[in-house]
Design brief:
With 452 residues, the protein is an alpha+beta fold. Helix content is 34%, strand content 25%. The protein has 12 helices and 25 strands.
């Protein structure tokens, strides 16, 4: 028995030594080799050193082809090498091998962070560049998504629901490619990269916008041009309103077009006029320097700000120049009329004839210009200077910007008739001294002067 016991003991001892030796060798081996069946991103690296595993990963992953599939159809193929998957994985493999137990038998599983790290070891610049280029190419005949928006239907504001599209968002596609690589997959689901509408019908901001737009569209918007009133039609106002980028907006081009239409209707500067003359009935008088015009740019901006406030308004139009008197007409009922054909002048005040006289206008070679002007200055004892004359006068009232005006002409022996044909002025309207002395006292600067 003693001998048999000794034998058993010896066998056990040998077995223990053998097992210990085996595990010692195994432990030593797997200190720098990966455990059997170890896989990284679908590639088996069991039994390999970090260096060998790195070469295997570079070779395998660089040659993997990824399919971009859309609705079950492959629309593009890209190799791992194009996506930068043949880069160096040494650092991550070293980190992985340090986690394994050289005495163990189970493989080490990559944590999510390490999976991401391995995927990011691919060239992210290459993935983004590819995704950007491929998205641009694939989007050629694809439909873009449409944001929900506010529209006008049957005179009322409603929310038009958003519409899905199948255009690809390059950033989403790049992320989907990276996710596919991390998951050890080779098919990239393009549909997950579709661009989405940025605004949807359930957004509270959109509902608030409808409320605001309805309120603004119902305001009474009036523009006053002296005693002319222009009310902006509700339909026109609605056509200017919209909701963009999170705010209610007023179309600048729409308002500008409307203001331009008012200018066409009311502006008088640089326009000929129909004038009811004393002796010749209705005559057409060309433009002079007298006139009135809407300051279109400033008026457009002012209207936009008033409309945005959402309250009724009656705005006096912004204008420049002279014109539009209390009676709503351009010239008004106080003016000087100079009839060159009849060589006669009248002064009307508040529609009543105050005084009149024969005059002498410019001779045919230097005619008095026709047009609607105004007295823009009144001077006593002035000297008129021209190319070939220097003449002192007692009363001087310039009416245009070329040196033409009304003044006394004591050197004229007669006025009216056809005297002007040979003895007319250089362009001014010569007045009898006694007549202009009285006229001077009753006319004001700014009085229109109609010459025809």
């Amino acid at each position: 028995m003693k001998k048999k016991g000794w034998i058993i003991t010896s066998v056990i001892a040998v077995a223990v030594v053998a097992v210990a030796a085996f595990f010692g060798v195994r432990s030593s081996h797997y200190r720098d080799h990966f455990l059997p069946k170890t896989e990284v991103m679908g590639v088996t690296i069991g039994g390999k050193t970090v260096k060998a595993a790195n070469q295997t990963l570079k070779a395998k992953l660089g040659n993997v082809n990824y399919q971009l599939t859309d609705q079950g159809k492959t629309v593009a193929t890209v190799s791992g090498q194009e996506l930068g998957l043949n880069r160096d994985y040494t650092a991550l493999l070293n980190k992985l091998i340090k986690k394994q137990n050289p005495w163990g038998f189970t493989t080490v599983v990559l944590a999510k962070g390490e999976q991401s790290a391995l995927a990011s070891s691919a060239d992210q610049t290459a993935i983004k560049a590819y995704a950007t280029s491929e998205a641009q190419s694939l989007n050629t005949n694809r439909t873009a998504p449409e944001d929900a928006k506010v529209t006008v239907e049957n005179g009322d504001y409603v929310i038009q629901k958003e519409k899905a599209g199948n255009q690809i968002d390059a950033t989403k596609l790049a992320n989907e490619i990276a996710s596919t690589i991390q998951a050890n997959q080779t098919k990239v689901q393009v549909a997950k990269s579709y661009a989405k509408p940025k605004v949807v019908s359930s957004d509270s901001e959109l509902k608030d916008a409808v409320t605001k737009l309805k309120a603004i569209s119902k305001i009474k918007a009036v523009i006053t041009i002296t005693n002319h009133k222009e009310t902006i039609p509700t339909a026109t106002l609605q056509s200017w309103l919209s909701y963009q980028d999170g705010a209610v907006t007023v179309s600048e081009s729409g308002v500008a077009k409307y203001v331009a239409s008012l200018a066409t209707k009311y502006n008088t500067y640089d326009k000929s006029r129909q004038f009811q003359s004393t002796k010749r009935g209705t005559v057409t008088v060309p433009a002079g320097i007298y006139g009135w015009s809407i300051r279109q740019s400033a008026e457009t901006k002012a209207l936009i700000e008033l409309i945005k406030k959402g309250a009724d308004f009656d705005q006096t139009v912004l204008y420049q120049g002279t014109g539009y008197h209390a009676d709503g007409t351009d010239i008004g009922n106080t003016y000087i009329e100079v009839d060159k054909v009849n060589q006669h002048e009248w002064f009307y005040k508040n529609g009543q004839l105050v005084m009149e006289s024969d005059v002498v206008t410019g001779k045919p070679s230097t005619p008095t210009p026709s047009g609607v002007f105004d007295i823009w200055s009144k001077q006593r004892n002035a000297t008129l200077v021209g190319e070939d004359y220097k003449t002192p006068v007692s009363y001087w009232m310039p009416i245009d910007n070329t040196g033409v005006g009304l003044h006394d002409a004591s050197w004229q022996p007669t006025f009216g008739g056809d005297w002007y044909l040979k003895h007319g002025s250089h362009g001014c309207v010569n007045q009898p001294p006694a007549f202009i002395a009285k006229l001077w006292n009753v006319v004001s600067v700014g009085t229109p002067v109609v010459v025809f």
